[in-house]
Amino acid sequence: MRKIIKRNKTRMSLNKKLLALIVFSVASLSACADTILQGDVKRGSEISVVCGMCHGVNGISNIPIYPNLAGQKEQYLVLQLKAFRSGERVNIAMTSHAQKLTDQDIADLSAYYAQLDPKPQ
Ligand code: HEC
């Protein structure tokens, strides 16, 4: 009797593991789907004027508490901008700017900042 109960428990936890694996796979797939949009560097440059007020004209910030964006990884920038837009990441200076961005804006801005030289000129 005990043995049967034990076996059932094992099966339950295996099911849970399988469920966790499926949830994780779907989450990973949707994270990949986020990176499909092709960024346009030229358009990113054009719409980055407002961002430059805080992040610097070439993505190198002059303000100690504002991060540099130049040379940052493109997909990381996409994820962070989406996190600000959704409210998952919150910052009083950043959130309102991210909320105005479309998926294409985010792709273009990320492509633009990623290809800039990370060293201050
Ligand atoms: C009013 C100032 C301000 C403006 C304008 C602004 N940002 Fe930011 N941004 C910040 C601050 C401050 C942070 C750091 C937030 C934190 O500490 O979490 C930040 C963070 C970020 C990050 C995350 C960087 C990292 O290393 O994780 C990205 C990406 C970003 N901003 C992109 C942009 C883009 C693109 C625009 C233009 C649409 C923009 N920002 C406009 C102030 C600003």
UniProtKB/TrEMBL annotation:
Residues 39-117 form the Cytochrome c domain. Residues 1-33 form the signal peptide. Keywords: Electron transport, Heme, Iron, Metal-binding, Signal, Transport. One of its GO terms (molecular function) is electron transfer activity. It comes from the Bacteria. InterPro entries: Cyt_c-like_dom, Cyt_c-like_dom_sf, Cytochrome_c_Oxidase_Subunit. PANTHER family: CBB3-TYPE CYTOCHROME C OXIDASE SUBUNIT FIXP, CYTOCHROME C4. This is Cytochrome c-554. It comes from Brumicola pallidula DSM 14239 = ACAM 615.
